[in-house]
Prior knowledge:
Layout: E1 4-5, E2 11-16, E3 27-32, E4 34-35, E5 40-49, H1 53-59, E6 77-85, E7 97-101, E8 103-104, E9 117-118, E10 125-129, E11 135-137, H2 144-164, E12 171-175, H3 180-191, E13 195-199, H4 205-211, E14 215-217, E15 228-233, H5 242-245, E16 248-256, H6 264-267, E17 273-276, H7 287-296, E18 303-307, H8 312-321, E19 327-331
Parallel strand pairs: 8-9, 12-13, 12-15, 13-14, 15-16, 16-17, 18-19
Antiparallel strand pairs: 1-4, 2-3, 5-6, 5-10, 5-19, 6-7, 7-11
Helix pairs in contact: 2-3, 2-7
Amino acid sequence: MDAVVDSQQESMKAVVATDYGPPEQYAVAEVPVPRPGPGQMQVRIAAASVNPADVRLPGGEFRDVVDAEFPYIPGVDFAGMVTEIGDGVSAYAVGDEVFGTAVPRVLRAMAGTRPSVGTGAMAEYAVVEADTPLIAHRPDGLAAPDAAALATAGQAALAISKAADVQPGERVLVVGATGGVGTALLPLLAAAKAQVIATATETDADVMVGLGATEVIGYQEAGYPADVDVAINVVLPGDGLAGVAAALRPGGRLVTITFPITTPELIRRDDVELRFILDMDGELASMRDVGEAGARGELRATIARRYSLDEGPQACADFLREHTLGKRVVVL
């Protein structure tokens, strides 16, 4: 059920896109505060991190699949405090600190069997579904900006780590190691005692080593190593992984999270195992798992820059236009 928006309600500040276009057209505006319907809760946002959907959906990339709803408020990943609950919500109470992932409501059909959808987190308040494995209580040991930075990225990293089943001593190539998922994943692979080879720029090499990489290489496929046991892709499109797959030994494992779904024909190899990860139902890793791993220090948030809500449009533009090491976070 959609959140209730009462035109007579008080207003709030939010980052808003009013039509299809680049993030440079986003603005900060006053909009009505959303109210929770049955099964939903209202959250006062403390932090939100930038994700691809925040620029791709209002940018028009998905128009052949779904229409964006305007005004559109970006913000998928969030942390904040519950300020109101709807009928039927028993797992949360007003005052609870929560965090997680809530995709735009128009993507509900693509969001698993218990869809985690919301009204957009780059705002003072958002309404999200309460009964979903992708929202959880935020542990005391995990700060709100870190929780927002780790929601999607940390959940994906945990799911990849579990699906890859890396064994001590295995050589693992990580393509896209400098992004949100990559920077969360490297410490998990290092803890598994893998030999981690990370793609990055020379400028980011020291950070990669600090996160657990044993070797840092450039982005060019010609520089990829040979005979690695596991290749993990978190950035390249799924139909462009032939070069990544070529780095694998026979019988190796290619783990990827990007569309389109990779097939043996696309990588021109039938002697390696393909594992595509899309864990929208939290079967490999729930948000509670992310919170616990973050509080223990097993998952670490790498935050490239923090922005105010008024700087939210700039955060989205920087995400699209600039190289990012880790995550960009809007802090309210």
